[in-house]
Design goal:
Blueprint (H helix, E strand, L loop, with lengths): L1 H171 L1
């Protein structure tokens, strides 16, 4: 009986162990399924993040290329502008030289013009003075003419008077 009790006890223990094992299996399967679900979800999350990273990487590469193109364009534009600025500065320098030469060339005619203007002013003043003198002489001549005409008139009157006297004398003689 002891053996039977031992066998039953062992069977009970085995059954108990099997039940515990079955329960542990269920629990571990549930945990495994939970972990698998978490792993799958994390895996999907990782894949999504990988795709986002790839997309962001592609965008970053596009932006890097755009930046490089912009840098090249900027560099090219700087060179072009620098060349244009140098050409314009050279042109301005040449024009300034040319203007300086023209100004120098105009200095002699300007001096001559100034001299002529001074001479013209002097001649105008001289002509005005002469005109004043002529006007004065005209007035003097007018005055002299009036005096002379008056004197002629007086002399003619005397001549007539004398003719009248001579005519009387001749008639009386």
């Amino acid at each position: 009986m002891k053996k039977l009790i031992k066998k039953i006890a062992i069977k009970d223990e085995v059954a108990e162990l099997r039940r515990e094992m079955a329960e542990l299996k269920r629990e571990s399967n549930a945990r495994i399924k939970g972990l698998e679900s978490k792993v799958k979800s994390k895996s999907e999350e990782i894949e999504t993040k990988k795709k986002d990273i790839e997309r962001l990487k592609a965008n970053l590469q596009k932006k890097d290329r755009t930046i490089e193109e912009n840098k090249k364009d900027l560099s090219r534009m700087k060179k072009e502008n620098s060349t244009k600025i140098e050409a314009l500065e050279s042109k301005v320098k040449d024009m300034t030289k040319e203007l300086g030469k023209k100004e120098e060339d105009l200095q002699t005619p300007k001096k001559l013009l100034d001299q002529r203007e001074v001479e013209l002013k002097r001649l105008r003043e001289e002509v005005e003075y002469k005109n004043q003198q002529l006007a004065s002489k005209d007035m003097e001549m007018e005055s002299y003419k009036k005096v002379t005409e008056e004197r002629i008139f007086q002399l003619e009157a005397k001549v007539k008077e004398l003719e009248g006297k001579i005519g009387e004398l001749s008639a009386t003689s």
